[in-house]
Each structure stands twice: as structure tokens, then as C-alpha cells.
Amino acid sequence: DTAVSQTPKYLVTQMGNDKSIKCEQNLGHDTMYWYKQDSKKFLKIMFSYNNKELIINETVPNRFSPKSPDKAHLNLHINSLELGDSAVYFCASTLKWGNEQFFGPGTRLTVL
Amino acid sequence: AQRVTQPEKLLSVFKGAPVELKCNYSYSGSPELFWYVQYSRQRLQLLLRHISRESIKGFTADLNKGETSFHLKKPFAQEEDSAMYYCALITGSQGNLIFGKGTKLSVKP
User: Fold this and answer.
1) Domain that residue B10 falls in
2) CB–CB contact A101 B92 (8 Å)
3) From the CA atom positions of chain A, what is the Rg in Å?
4) Choice between B51 and A26, residue whose per-residue pLDDT is larger
5) Residue B27 sits in a domain of what CATH number?
6) Could you tell me which of A41, A91, B10, B61 has the fewest CB atoms within 10 Å of its CB?
7) What is the distance between the alpha carbons of residues A23 and A106, in angstroms, rounded to a whole number?
8) Minimum-distance CB partner of A45 among B32, B49, B97
9) How far is A107 from chain B (nearest CA, A)?
10) Percentage of residues in chain B with pLDDT exceeding 90?
11) Are A101 and B45 in contact (CB < 8 Å)?
């Protein structure tokens, strides 16, 4: 009964490919997020989304796009992958503003 | 600008010693601050938040608005406390977390 799950856990791919990472939460939360953790362990917000609003961090390239088929899912699509995209991507969710965010286990993306 | 600063990249202490992980913030409004922890090969999880004012696993953190700090403290470190600790500030209409760069705590036997 994992609260926030991500697939795949590991993703190895070539430069230029397009890939997706899936995230699902079974907590009934309204808001979901994507964070990127780079090789130095820096964590940075990429997107936040609820059923009303998508907020994109302005530093995120438009090759990255979140897609939410329903309230429980927020998938991350990445086009034309670059070496610098290699990182661990974390999905998270929260019930409402100011509450604890629950994180997924992360997806380690390696671009060769 | 909104910012969270954790000046120590690595903090190494011996078991039983006191530990303090520093965190300073920059925020124009009334801050809501958190400490998240990431144990080895585990997901990021909430350790504590300033509004709850509770002690979790022996850790406490007090918000000092004058010094714009939210340092994490524990009087007697344990080996199982070894982990990556992130201080975070909540911001924006959707509650995005701005994280500090993290401090790796290593507790030696």
C-alpha cells in the first residue's frame, strides 16, 4: 500500500530519446510535484500541479512536460534527452498547502 | 529572493555527541519551515516542521525570526541518525518546497 509510487526505478537511455516517468499517489491528495536531484544532491522543484493550476519553474526546459490523466497521477515526459538531464527525479504529493509532502522513491535517469 | 542556506555540506560527529545542523533562510513573508531527511537508499521523508514544535527521534528545531534561522539539534547523536538532511521553506500558491543544498550527517561509533 505504497503512498507515492514511481516507475521505473532506473532508466538508462541514449541522448536524443524521448522518455516518460510515471507517478501515482493513493493518498487522495490534490497537489502533486516533480523535483530533480542532481549529482551533488541538490533538490529543486520542477513543477507543481493540482486540478486547477500547473506551475512551472522557469528554469525547466520546455523539453520537460508534466501530464496528469487524473488526480492520482502526474507523469513526466522528457523529449530529446540530454546528458545534463541525468539525475534522480522525485514525485511528491500533499493534501493541501503547508502540509507534509510525501515523496516517491525516485527514478534514477542516466542519459548516455 | 527566497533562499535556504545550509552552510555545511558534511558534518561528522561521534556517537553520543551533540549535533547541530545549521539552516538560514531568506523570505519576505511569514516563513513555514521544514526539515526533511533522506536515509541511505530510502525516500525523502519529513522529519519535523516548525509549527508543530515537536521532537522527532530526539531532534528539535526552533525558528528564530531575528536570525532567520531554523537549526536542527539533537543532544546525543546515534549511528542511525546518519543521513542527508534538508532544510526547506514552503512558498508559492501551491506550496512548493525550496530546499537547501543539504547536509550529510555522519555519526561514527
Assistant:
1) 3-108
2) no
3) 13
4) A26
5) 2.60.40.10
6) B10
7) 10
8) B97
9) 11
10) 74
11) no
Q: Tell me the CATH number of domain A4-107, given options 3.40.710.10, 3.40.50.40, 3.40.190.10, 2.60.40.10.
A: 2.60.40.10
- Reference A38, options A20, A23, A54, A59; nearest CA is A59
Highest mean pLDDT out of A8-17, B61-70, B90-99: A8-17
> Coil, strand or helix: which one is A100?
coil
Q: Determine, for residues A31 and B94 on separate chains, whether the beta-carbon distance falls below 8 Å.
A: yes
Q: Which of A41, A50, A98 sits opposite B90 (nearest CB)?
A: A98
A104 to B43: CB separation less than 8 angstroms, yes or no: yes
Q: If phi over 0 gives left and psi between -120 and 50 gives alpha, with beta otherwise, what is residue A15?
A: beta
Q: How many residues does chain A have?
A: 112
Q: Pick A42's closest partner by Cβ from B34, B95, B101.
A: B101
Look at A14 and B52; give whichever has higher pLDDT: A14
From CA A34, how far away is CA A56, in angstroms rounded? 10
Q: Name the band, by pLDDT with cuts 50, 70 and 90, for residue A1.
A: low
